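Q&A FORM
Asked by: J.P.
Topic: structure of Thiamine pyrophosphate enzyme TPP-binding domain-containing protein

PROVIDED:
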Amino acid sequence: MKAYTRKVEKHVPIHPEYVAAVLDELADEDAVFTVDTGMCNVWAARYITPNGRRRVIGSFSHGSMANALPMAIGAQFTDRGRQVVSMSGDGGFTMLMGDFLTLVQYDLPVKVVLFNNSSLSMVELEMLVAGLPSHGTALKNPDFAAVARACGAHGVRVEKPKELAGALKSAFKHKGPALVDVVTDPNALSIPPKISAEMVTGFALSASKMVLDGGVGRMLQMARSNLRNVPRP
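REPLIED BY: S.T.
REPLY: Here is the structure written out as tokens.
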């Protein structure tokens, strides 16, 4: 897991794993994390350190999208003095973006850390391992930090790794609702602990279809983004 969280100062777009690792380091010891269904589940499971005091809440059994922000609202209403962090995917956040106004309306100090890769990445990965080229998973996102500021909240956009820690610290210090819009790598793959032959076959098939359809560049970008996951002696 450390392959994606070290020596990343110049990696743009930012590794989502690095975002989760820095968030784990800077968040309160008793923080409540709410995680969107999809890749945010994976990053939280791999990088948020349990200590007996933190809580991680998600839609783990049902798998409903856009759950992180509504759950964060409920958690913050329960205890206004406790740090609540919504680990939101861009797909989930945009589905219920109006709920961000609830934070402003009731001055709930929820901190939204938005993993913005302009993609429904978990759906795309499921399509790839099933042998299907991705289709309909790309998103045309606005500047979410600007949207947050327009709503009357604290908003900051992060595009470089060296800006991340400062942006999170400023959001955590802010007394009201805050959103940190982190532009993350759309080619980052969640490599499962065990890879089956069916997964390899499906991915190879979808990759071949993408290359034959003119997507050589996309596959090269994906390879560059994930080669660091290959174990080295």
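FOLLOW-UP: DSSP finds ten helices and six strands in the chain.
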